[in-house]
């Protein structure tokens, strides 16, 4: 059981969230407005693929599903790297089974630039960490990365995609990713549910999809404590 970028980011917000994703995913409740935002983000990402003109997309689904076939995507990406394709979208990489798919990988004279597309009007701290995970995996796969950008919404239709360079901030996080990736890998494999009390992490940076589950659990524990005190 390895970790993906999404799993890593969820585990950084709260290790219990990552554990629940792996062991009790049916408890997850995604609010409709969040699902809507995620769908909008996917549409924005799809449109951004063409921001540099012609491109090759690496997405391959497992037969009859919408589950990405990671191994097939990694193999297709390798073929396009070998061919020298200029713009590779959803470029997939795996290192010790840890996995990421980059929105856009663009060939340069000396290596590649990374473009991570975010459905946002500004760059946030979690975007930097998110792309730092990708930089870590790609670097471990021996791909030379020159510059790293986060693509955000422009002010109007004519400037729809605005790349913001974050190379320095991202490269500084390499060791932080290295420390946390293995810690979170161990955590998600634990057999017992993690005992983490709800707190600020339940809403920051995103409202947790297990909010109802953990807060009901918390209320039940409080009730039990009250009953014990009354005995
Ligand atoms: S609701 Fe809070 S404590 Fe529970 S998994 Fe989510 S972030 Fe963690």
What is the fold's blueprint, element by element?
Layout: H1 5-13, H2 15-23, H3 32-48, E1 56-57, H4 70-83, E2 87-95, E3 98-107, E4 112-117, H5 125-140, E5 145-153, E6 161-165, H6 167-172, H7 174-189, H8 211-230
Helix pairs in contact: 1-2, 1-5, 2-7
Bound molecules: iron/sulfur cluster.
Iron/sulfur cluster (SF4) binds near residues 14, 16, 198, 208 and 210.
Fold and architecture overview:
By secondary structure, this protein is α/β, with parallel strands linked by helices. It has a single domain (5-230), classed as Lambda Exonuclease, Chain A (Alpha-Beta Complex). The chain has helices spanning 5-13, 15-23, 32-48, 70-83, 125-140, 167-172, 174-189, 211-230, and strands spanning 56-57, 87-95, 98-107, 112-117, 145-153, 161-165. It has a six-stranded mixed beta sheet with strand order 1-2-3-4-5-6. β3 (98-107) and β4 (112-117) form a beta hairpin. α1 packs across α2 and α2 crosses α7. Residues 14, 16-17, 20, 196, 198, 201-202, 208, 210-211, 214 line the site of iron/sulfur cluster.
Number of strands: 6
Rg, rounded, reads: 20 Å
pLDDT averaged residue by residue: 93
Strand order of the largest sheet: 1-2-3-4-5-6
Structural class: alpha/beta
Q: Helical amount among residues, as a percent range?
A: 40-55%
CATH fold name: Lambda Exonuclease, Chain A
Put simply, the count of helices is 8
Strand content: 15-25%
CATH architecture field: Alpha-Beta Complex
């Amino acid at each position: 059981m390895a970790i993906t970028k999404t799993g890593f980011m969820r585990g950084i917000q709260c290790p219990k969230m990552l554990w629940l994703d792996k062991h009790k995913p049916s408890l997850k409740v995604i609010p409709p407005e969040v699902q809507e935002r995620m769908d909008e983000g996917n549409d924005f990402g799809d449109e951004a693929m063409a921001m540099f003109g012609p491109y090759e997309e690496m997405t391959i689904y497992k037969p009859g599903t919408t589950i990405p076939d990671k191994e097939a995507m990694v193999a297709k990406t390798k073929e396009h790297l070998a061919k020298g394709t200029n713009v590779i979208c959803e470029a997939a990489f795996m290192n010790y089974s840890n996995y990421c798919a980059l929105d856009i990988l663009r060939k340069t004279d000396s290596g590649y630039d990374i473009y991570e597309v975010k459905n946002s009007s500004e760059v946030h701290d979690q975007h930097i960490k998110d792309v730092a995970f990708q930089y870590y995996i790609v670097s471990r796969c021996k791909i030379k990365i020159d510059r790293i950008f986060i693509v955000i919404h422009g002010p109007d239709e004519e400037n729809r995609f605005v790349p913001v360079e974050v190379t320095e901030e991202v490269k500084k996080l390499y060791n932080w990713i290295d420390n946390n990736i293995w810690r979170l890998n161990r955590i998600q494999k634990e057999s017992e549910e993690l005992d983490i009390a709800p707190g600020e992490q339940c809403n920051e940076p995103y409202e947790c999809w297990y909010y109802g589950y953990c807060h009901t659990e918390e209320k039940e524990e409080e009730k039990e404590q009250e009953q014990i005190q009354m005995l």
